[in-house]
Amino acid sequence: MNDTSAPKIRLAPEREDYLLTMRDENRQSGRPFFAGVQITSIQEIYWIVQECGWVEYPDERSEKAVDLSGAILYSDDTDSKIDFRSVSWRYANFRGADLQGASLSGAYLEDADFSEADLGEVELNEAILERANFTRAYLVKARMNNAHLDGAIFIDALLDQVEMNGASLTRANLCRARLNRAILRSAHLYKVNLSSAHLGHADLRGADLRGAVFDDKTILSKIKLSSQTRLGDIDWNDASLAHVDWTGIRTLGDEILIANRGKLIREENKGAMRVTEYRFLISKVCRDVARAYHGLVVTLERQGLDVPASRFRVREQRMEKHALRFENRRGAWVFSSLLDSVAGYGERPGNVIVWYLIVVSFFALGYYLTTNALPPRNDQLSPLGAIFLSILSFHGRGFIPGSYTQLGGWAVGLAAIEAVIGLSIEAIFVATLIRRIFSD
Asked: Which of 186, 330, 352, 374 is a good FRET partner for 85, with 20 to 30 A between their CA atoms?
């Protein structure tokens, strides 16, 4: 619109006179040029930009920036919305403007000011709105899917039922914003400020919330999360998680980073990276994911939510175990694997009972067969006797003089093996409990 060779835009003479008169009156009264003036088409807006000498890319907040603050920007024809999709205005001022229902999808409005504007049901899909100011703006039912909102300010904004699927809000400020029933699936909310925000029933499935900031006034009741939601390095600051449904979430989306990072490294280096370097990078990602679980576990336990905390603690330890494998620390990895298998790192004590029954049953069958089917057949055991002997041997009492039977042949070897396995399981269980107690 700033090309001098472009044909000059014209409106109906009476319409031009009206807009110029209103501009002059507002200017004389110290109000924004078009405050309270109804502008009904994109053609009229382009004419205004032309007459006021505004430019697309002015210096920061200069008089050359588009200024439609306080304007009423909608058509009297309810079936016709003002179409802003072709506009490219940096530092545009829409402060207090009425843009209800307008279409700004794909528009370039970086650093624009929409503070206190009415943007109800507006379309901002794929719009470029980085660092835009939406302080105290009304955005109920707005559609902002895949919009670029990095660094945008939404302090005290009303965003109930807004759609922000796939939107990028890195480092955006949503302090005290209302996002009840907002849809933020797969949104990028990296290091976003959600202090005192209301997110009741918000859909955050697949969203990236790494580094987000909450506080004890943030409302998270009945939010929807999934196993693709990323929660690493969040500053929970005592935000209540009591009303979050954790039942369907077995893992965090942060684990996806391990596979993605490995694939990315392989594609970027095309085999040029040494194996040791690759292992180091993947182990670092594993520990980052473990840290994500740890932060969540600490917050859940502090609020008495022991069931989900227990589940995520196991995932934390398994991420640490994966890191040990990539660091080629075989001994530590084997020990961690045994802790996981035998007792689930102290969170699955039922595993010990399962292993106990498996070992006792297996060796009871071995005692029965060796004393009844293999020579010599002296001191044959009944099924019940074999079970009893297996229990004694598991606890290391199979060789005590005067015990149930004097073993011979193959049974002696089996009893020795079972004693070693039984004592190992008991030792691992005790070590797991000690580790669990001191980790708290």
From this structure: 186
Six-digit token string for 81: 């919305």
Q: Which residue has the tokens 């430019």?
A: 55
Give me the amino acid identity at 380. Q
Structure tokens, 281 = 């990078």
CA distances from 295 to 171, 210, 289, 307, 377 (A): 20, 11, 10, 15, 61
Instruction: Answer whether CATH 1.20.1260 is correct for domain 350-439.
Output: no
Q: b/e per residue, 408-417, with b = 16+ CB within 10 A?
A: eebbeebbee
Closest CA to 414 of 352, 369, 382: 369
pLDDT in tens, 257-316: 777 765 655 555 555 556 677 778 888 889 999 999 999 999 999 999 988 998 999 899
Q: In angstroms, how far is CA 34 from the centroid of its own chain? A: 43
Are 308 and 250 in contact by the 8 Å Cβ rule? The answer is no
φ/ψ of residue 379, rounded to 5? 55, 50
Per the CB < 8 A criterion, the answer to whether 397 and 407 are in contact is: no
Query: Which amino acid does the sequence have at 388?
Result: F
